Amino acid sequence: MDRNPSPPPLSRDGDEEEEAAGGDCIGSTVYSKHWLFGVLSGLIQIVSPENSKSSSDDEEQQMELDEEMENEICRVWDMSMDEDVALFLQEFNAPDIFMGVLAKSKCPRLREICVGILGNMACFQEICVSISSDKNLGQVLLYCLCDSDPPTLLETSRLLLTCLSQTEVAIVWVERIREHPAIYDSICFIMSSSTNVDLLVKVGEVVDKLFDLDEKLILEWIRNGAVQPLDQPQEDSEQQPVFRIVPCVLEAAKQVRSENPEGLDVYMHILQLLTTVDEGIQAIVQCPDTGKDTWNLLFDLVCHEFCQSDDPPIILQEQKTVLASVFSVLSAIYASQAEQEYLKTGKVDLPLIDSLIRVLQNMKHCQKKPENSAESNTEETKKSDLTQDDFHLKILKDISCEFLSNIFQVLTKETVAQGLKEGQLSKQKCSCAFENLLPLYNPVVEDFLKILREVDKTFAGNLEESFPSLKVQT
C-alpha cells in the first residue's frame, strides 16, 4: 500500500454531491468538510480517556492502526498540501488533535502521519507561525526527535527544517533546541547509527540549518562531547554514551556518500561550519583518531572521487559547493600545525596540488559565457541562477587559491623535484596556479620560484617568460 494514497472521490452518491455543491467544499477545493470532520473525530476517539485506559493485553493492539482509519488519515495527509485544506485544519484546531495523538498514541504509523500532516501545514507561513508559537506543541514535536521509529523521525526532521527555514520563527526553534540537551544526543545517535539514508540527509539538513543560524549552538554542541561526566561511575552499564559531534558527522557522511551526493554536500558543509570557530578545528585535530578519520575521508574525496582527470570540466558545476566545503576543511586542518603522520608534507602536498590546480583549470570552462545569445528573451529568468553559480564558483576559487598558497609555502626542494618528475608541477599546471594566485599571493609565488630555480633553472626561466612581472621583480 502506498504511504500517501491519493484523496478519495468526494462523493459516493447524489446526496453527497448536492451537499458538496451546497457549501460542504473546503475553500476552492472539492474536498468535503463533513468527511474531514469525521476523520478528525475518529482521531479524537483514538486518544480519548476511555480508550487510553486499556489493559496490558491491549498494548500490542495499540501499536497497530486500523486499515480503514489509516487510509482515511493518509488522505488527509495528502490533502493537507493544499493551502485551503491546511487553513481549514488550522481553523478546526487540528494541530491540538495531532498533539494529543503524539502525546498519547503508541502507534508509530499514526504518529508518523500526524507529524507529516503538521509538516505539510507548516509549509504555509501563517500556519507555521501559529504552530511555532504553541509551546506545548513545540515540546511534543521536539520529543518526537527521541522516537525510535525512522519514518516518524524523518517527518519530524522535515517539519523542523520547514520551521527553521521561516525567518519569523527560526530563532524560536533554535532556542527550544538549545534548552533541551537531549536533542543533541538524539541527533548524534541518529547520525552515528542510522542506515536510513533519507533520514540521515534530512537530519543533516536540520543540523546544517541550525549551525548556519546560531554560532552559540555550534559551540555548545562541540563542548557537549568534549568532557566525560565525572559524577557517573564508568562501570555503570546503563550510562548513556557521550557523543562527539565530529565523529557522528563523519559516520553519517560515510553512510550517505555513495547513495546521496546532495546528502554528502550537506555533511561536508556541517564540517565547514564547525571549522568557522576555533573550538571546531580543535575538536577535529586534538583527537588523533578524529583528525585522521576526517583528513582521510576528505583527502580521498578530492583525490579519488571529485573532479578527476577523466571527468568533463563541466562536472565542476555539480561539485562546486561540496568541493568548496571539503577544501575549506582540509585547509583548516592543514593550517592547524597539528603534528600528525597524516599531515606530513611530501605524502599529501603533491596530490592536493594536483587536485587544486585541476579545479582551477576546469573553472575556466565553467565561467565561459555563451557568446551567441539567441535565447536572450529567457535570459532574465536565468540571471539569478547564473549569478548564484558565479558566486559559488568564486567562493571555490578563493578557497582553492588560499589552500594552494599554504601548500606552496611549505614545499621543499625534494617535493618540487618530485612534482616536476611526476607531472603535478608541469609548466601548464604551474602557469594555471600563477594565473590564479597572482597578484594576491605574489610573495608566495616568488618564494616558490626561488625553489624552482634551484631545482630546474631552465624550467623556472620558461615560466618567468610567461609572467614578466615576476621576472622584473626577481
TrEMBL record:
Q: Which InterPro entries match?
A: ARM-like, ARM-type_fold, Synovial_Prolif_Regulator
Record's keyword terms, sorted: Nucleus, Phosphoprotein
Region (Disordered) location: 1-22
Q: Where in the cell is it found?
A: Nucleus
Instruction: Enumerate composition-biased segments (Pro residues).
Output: 1-10
Q: Gene3D superfamilies recorded for this chain? A: Leucine-rich Repeat Variant
This protein's record includes keyword Cytoplasm: no
Primary site of residence: nucleus
Q: Give the protein's biological function.
A: Plays a role in promoting the proliferation of synovial fibroblasts in response to pro-inflammatory stimuli.
Q: Which family, according to UniProt?
A: Belongs to the SAAL1 family.
What is the recorded name of this protein?
Answer: Protein SAAL1
Gene (name only): SAAL1
